[in-house]
Amino acid sequence: MKLRAGRLLLAAIAVSGALLGCAGGPAANRGELPTASDQTDNQKRARIRLQLAIGYYEQRQLPVALDEIKLALQADPNFAEAYVMRGLVYMDMGETRLADDNFQQGLRLSPNNPDFNNNYGWFLCQNGREKESIAYFENALKNRAYQSPAKALNNAGMCTLKLKDKATAERYFTRAFQTDPSDPITNLNLSKLYFERRDYERSRFYVGRVIKAEALTPEALWLAIRIEHKLGDRAAEASLVAQLRRRFPGSVEYAAFQRGAYDE
Question: What parts of the chain have a pLDDT lower than 50?
């Protein structure tokens, strides 16, 4: 789950871009939206350092990434993305308290940033604070400029499932589907939900969309196999098993198939 959270946070930092770093600059004083030309030299230096930090993070050179973030914040102490990035690094290092402090500082500097709200919510959810997390997903969804609402809706649904509230989780996943019907995570979440409910036809519909989109993962293929097994379509099951064997022979899911663990 940490890897997934890492990808989410990196995406948030990448898409935030130079414009968020300009908040409170000359354009804001003129009553305009900030653009890249409003950046000061210090802000530009800070952003270059942050991009270096992201590169080191992706190479798993975490101490070096922290050094680059430190230099970014020396250049621009109000650089919200740098705090969020440092939170990600600390999270991967198992420094939960430091990660929390930095995520919160990023949010204090940019409280309406939907990606920051979404990702802090996910961080809370992964650290046993599911109830707290929902408010941050909702904050993200309030922002009409948010380009990835399905992400926050899916995260809210998954965290609600951890609270054993399947009805609310279904509502979040359904809203995510209405927002982006092609999203494979949404379709997989709905398929799993209906499989657990033993509504195998509906479960087949949603996992089928994942398969058709070629968004194949061992989890999606194994779920599809189990659905066809329940529905008694042996030809479809055999075809999916062949794909799982060919594409993911070393996966946990293929091992489960070999054990015949259809109901685990």
Answer: 1-5, 15, 17-24, 28
